[in-house]
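step=encode ok
step=design start
structure_in=
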């Protein structure tokens, strides 16, 4: 039954390097949602692809001595290979170097220019190449990019600008009238309070200092800057141009949901809706900013040596086990973590012990007690009703949770059936029933109920773990896994099943960890340091009053996503200091620590607060790390 159309997209992956498992999470998450919607009967169109222009790509290509096109061809191919490896069911893979996309971007730019929404001016400001973003002096945090913490450099060039400010009120009105537009709720508050209410600035939409981009048709000095190029992929992939909208566009737009990382939420919830407003096109129904997948507590980084890749995990654990971990272990609105130890634990606990053992035991018992035929029986046990309720509740809850994009919770409901079915085995004790011929009908009912519970699992789990759903269906000869078939008792009895074969073989954790450590251990590298500053007089250094301060209070500064406000105990005194490290720390994690700070800097006002000093931090891989001292050093102690 066709329940209507459903258009879902990932963000397009940037072709600077091979994607790590954190990048891969997004496409697996989106695939699970797309598959579940198809499973429910929707006509789904699932779009993914690659973002291939920009200064960073040009610089990387130059370092390798190849053309930017050759560089992105290689990385885009690698990305698509990993998406295919992860068994993602995308309907289209767009590349921003595709001819049809280039043509539409140029026409979009020209339309907005002709309309008066794009104008030429000049730009002077700080530019972060990795983030492809411009920043003002006040937006920098300790002189560095507020998004990634890396070095910025001064840019002064002629550019075209988009009149974002013109559409601020219309965007705010849309958000207020459509409460589900930005999800989760915490992300919506962040966008509204930190970026929209303070005032939307006009956006730089062209560059003239490099040439790897889509040319502006009426000004050959300029290439179209990333956001109009990258964001318009969602409509261009459907055949949109300002001249002709195309059959797919008419059918599927507006998108039902854009699945994106929380770090690019601003571009999708502010720039993209305003571009669509200016074009006179409908806005997407929902933009969902998913959290990050961290290695331990850190964002993955090559220089940290903590990068994990999907193809390596698949080689060790299999596609569905990796999909399961990504989908089950990521919270709805908070960052998740991945480590080899946690993957092994998840594999053994949920997949080998709970799910695999259930299927294997049930198949083995049907083969042993009923010659491999699922029995028909009119008997019952006192435990049947609760098992049946668990199965049917899981079906309904999974559908409801998936409608709210709570994928981990939906998968938890499905594994909950396996837990309940294993308990049902313990309660009914089939091995004891098999010893009493008068209980054969009861034994038959137990076997039927277990097989039916497993059919529910095989059906419901198939969007999340497609290969596993197929293997279970094949082993127990299920011929109907459709969602609408999931009424307990619909399983066809008198069906011959296959031999019991393990779905997931339990992993020897100690042996596997030794194997992984041997393969992926990263030798310690000496980092290349920045040049030392020029020598200063020793007397000048002595003028700095560096003290130890114990953190009594630490909190986020309202209306700022960069600043933390500290109250430090300094001996018998207290100090208030503001520091731009909110991106790197949770306030509660710093309370009680002894930090070093410069005490004799003149006070300055920041976001309405007086800051009396500067907390010392060290930069590591684009991250600021506060300098701490042993806890038994007295607060107020002077560094000499």
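sequence_out=
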């Amino acid at each position: 039954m066709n329940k209507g159309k459903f258009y879902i997209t990932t963000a397009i992956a940037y072709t600077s390097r091979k994607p790590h498992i954190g990048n891969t999470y997004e496409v697996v998450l989106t695939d699970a949602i797309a598959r579940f919607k198809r499973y429910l009967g929707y006509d789904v169109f699932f779009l993914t692809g690659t973002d291939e222009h920009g200064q960073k790509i040009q610089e990387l290509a130059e370092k390798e001595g190849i053309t930017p096109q050759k560089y992105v061809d290689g990385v885009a191919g690698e990305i698509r290979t990993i998406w295919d490896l992860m068994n993602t069911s995308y309907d289209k893979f767009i590349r921003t170097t595709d001819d049809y996309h280039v043509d539409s971007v140029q026409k979009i730019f020209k339309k907005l220019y002709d309309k008066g929404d794009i104008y030429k001016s000049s730009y002077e400001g700080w530019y972060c190449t990795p983030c492809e973003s411009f920043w003002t002096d006040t937006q920098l945090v300790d002189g560095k990019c507020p998004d990634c913490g890396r070095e910025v450099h001064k840019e002064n060039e002629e550019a075209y600008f988009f009149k974002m400010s013109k559409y601020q009120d219309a965007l705010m009105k849309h958000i207020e009238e459509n409460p589900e537009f930005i999800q989760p709720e915490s992300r919506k508050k962040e966008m509204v309070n930190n970026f929209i209410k303070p005032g939307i600035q006009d956006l730089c939409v062209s560059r003239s200092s490099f040439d790897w981009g889509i040319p502006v048709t009426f000004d050959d000095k300029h290439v179209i800057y990333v956001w109009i190029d990258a964001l318009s992929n969602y409509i261009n992939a459907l055949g949109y141009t300002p001249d002709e909208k195309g059959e797919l566009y008419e059918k599927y737009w507006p998108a039902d949901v854009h699945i994106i990382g929380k770090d690019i939420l601003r571009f999708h919830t502010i720039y993209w809706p305003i571009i669509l407003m200016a074009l006179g096109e409908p806005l997407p129904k929902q933009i969902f900013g998913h959290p990050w997948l961290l290695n331990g507590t850190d964002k993955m980084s090559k220089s940290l040596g903590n990068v994990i890749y999907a193809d390596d995990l698949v080689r060790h654990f299999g596609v569905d086990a990796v999909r399961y971990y990504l989908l089950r272990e990521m919270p709805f609105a908070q960052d998740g973590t991945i480590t080899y130890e946690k993957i092994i634990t998840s594999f053994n606990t949920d997949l080998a012990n709970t799910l695999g053992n259930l299927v294997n035991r049930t198949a083995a018992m049907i083969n042993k007690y009923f010659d491999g035929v699922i029995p028909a029986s009119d008997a019952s046990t006192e435990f049947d009703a609760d098992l049946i309720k668990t199965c049917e509740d899981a079906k309904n809850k999974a559908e409801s949770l998936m409608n709210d994009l709570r994928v981990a919770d939906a998968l938890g409901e499905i594994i909950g059936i396996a837990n309940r079915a294993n308990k049902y085995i313990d309660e009914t004790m089939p091995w004891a029933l098999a010893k009493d011929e008068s209980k054969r009908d009861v034994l038959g009912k137990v076997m039927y109920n277990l097989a039916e519970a497993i059919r529910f699992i095989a059906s419901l789990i198939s969007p999340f773990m497609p290969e596993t759903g197929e293997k279970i269906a094949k082993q127990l000869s299920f011929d109907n896994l459709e969602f609408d078939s999931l009424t307990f008792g619909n399983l066809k009895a008198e069906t011959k099943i296959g031999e019991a074969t393990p779905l997931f073989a339990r992993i020897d954790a100690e042996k596997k960890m030794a194997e992984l450590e041997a393969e992926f251990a990263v030798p310690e590298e000496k980092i290349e340091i920045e040049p030392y500053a020029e020598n200063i007089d020793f007397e000048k250094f002595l003028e700095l009053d560096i003290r130890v301060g114990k953190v009594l209070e630490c909190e986020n500064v309202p209306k700022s996503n960069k600043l933390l406000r500290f109250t430090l105990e300094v001996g018998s005194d207290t100090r208030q200091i503001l520091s731009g490290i909110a991106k790197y720390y949770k306030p509660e994690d710093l309370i009680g620590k002894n930090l070093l700070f410069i005490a004799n800097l003149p006070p300055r006002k920041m976001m309405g607060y007086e800051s009396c000093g500067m907390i010392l931090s060290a930069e590591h891989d684009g991250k600021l790390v506060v300098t701490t001292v042993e806890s038994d050093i007295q607060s107020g102690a002077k560094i000499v």
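step=design ok
step=annotate ok -> The mean pLDDT is 92.
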